[in-house]
User: What shape does this take?
Amino acid sequence: MDFPNGSRYVYSNSDNILIGLMVEAATGGTYPDALQKYVLDPLGLENTSLPSEVALPEPFIHGYDLTGTDPMEDVTEGLAPGWAWASGGVVSTPADLNTFVRGYVSGELYSAEVRAEQQKLFIPGGESGPPGPGLNSASLSLFRYQTECGTVYGHTGNTVGYTQFIAASPDGTRSVTVSINLQRTDHSEDQAAFVFDALQRAELAGVCMALQG
Assistant: This one.
């Protein structure tokens, strides 16, 4: 252990893989089957899947790699999208992500007791990688973003060719989804750092529009 439980937060892909294995042990089936039964079907997410092949299910947004002044490279099918499995291997659309984050944050997918437990502890400074807008805090599979326009809950993520932000109001009635087709993080440098700064401004603008609109 690097630190006592509940005292700090550090993002780890391994944690999410372990959760996927726990799901399989609890259900007696596969993680993709559990994902379909308990998440995709209840929310009607028809354009969301956990692919096992290199080919992306349609429709999809092309992802790109741009390093310095090098020509932009289409990396959409450079690796199997499901390689990350339970730690970000799901492929979706902005519309489906919007539906998902509303259902997840509102507690539609689980009991009031689970939702209360999830909302009980938020560790300040816990980021979902890359950090979202405002002051970031981490809880159980959920992140809180306290902004100048209000507080939303959701998640960010990135992989080769893509960076993502989804969040919803506490009751799940308002939400925002921001996607770009470059991988950019708070560790980006030079021109890539400007892109990440612009992405965070866009995320904040989206949060403000969602909460105020």
